[in-house]
Each structure stands twice: as C-alpha cells, then as structure tokens.
Design brief:
The protein is built from three helices and two strands; from the N terminus they run αααββ. A two-stranded antiparallel ribbon has the order 1-2. Strand 1 and strand 2 form a beta hairpin. The longest helix has 20 residues. The two termini are 49 Å apart. It is an enzyme of class 6 (ligase). GO terms for molecular function: asparaginyl-tRNA synthase (glutamine-hydrolyzing) activity; ATP binding; glutaminyl-tRNA synthase (glutamine-hydrolyzing) activity; transferase activity. Heterotrimer of A, B and C subunits.
Length: 95
C-alpha cells in the first residue's frame, strides 16, 4: 500500500495537525516506510506462538471479589438533599 499526497493531507486533517506544503513529501515517505514495515510483519509465520502480555511468564495477581465494607446505606445518603429508599434522587436532565 502506498500513501499519496492527498492521503497525507487527509490524515493530517483528521489528526488536527497543521502540515505545510514542504512537509508533505517527508511525511509521505515516513508513512510509506511505516506501512512497508507493517507489511513485513504480516509475512512472519506465527503458527503455534501463544499470545503474551509480558516477556516473562507470570500470572495475574487477583484478589477475592467480595464485599469488605458497606451495609449502612442510611449513613451514605444522610448528607444528600433528597433521597428515597436509600437512593440518591437527582433532577431529571433529559426530556
């Protein structure tokens, strides 16, 4: 895939980057080099390679998903201006 001048200007516009006429050829070369490298990566055989999140094998640290605090909703809503059945009442903002 090759990037032309029009595509460079469109990418700059979408990224909200001001690009002068002198910078377009340089950016065009840079983008083409990046896309060439990505195409090279597509040629690599990755059959049988497990996806990994780190270069060293490790397991994620997990904690027990349990309630460790709570059970007193009346204390939580005591400073609210308006409540109902231990819930905050807020004004309607969408018609």
């Amino acid at each position: 895939m090759s990037v032309d001048e029009k595509t460079v200007r469109r990418i700059a516009h979408l990224a909200r980057i001001a690009v002068t006429d002198e910078e377009v050829p340089h950016l065009q070369g840079e983008l083409n080099a990046i896309l060439s490298f990505v195409e090279q990566l597509n040629e690599v055989n990755v059959d049988g390679v497990e996806p990994m999140t780190s270069v060293t094998p490790m397991t994620m640290k997990k904690r027990q998903d349990g309630v460790t605090d709570g059970g007193y909703p009346e204390k939580i809503v005591q400073n609210a201006p308006v409540t109902e059945d231990d819930f905050f009442l807020v004004p309607k903002v969408v018609e």
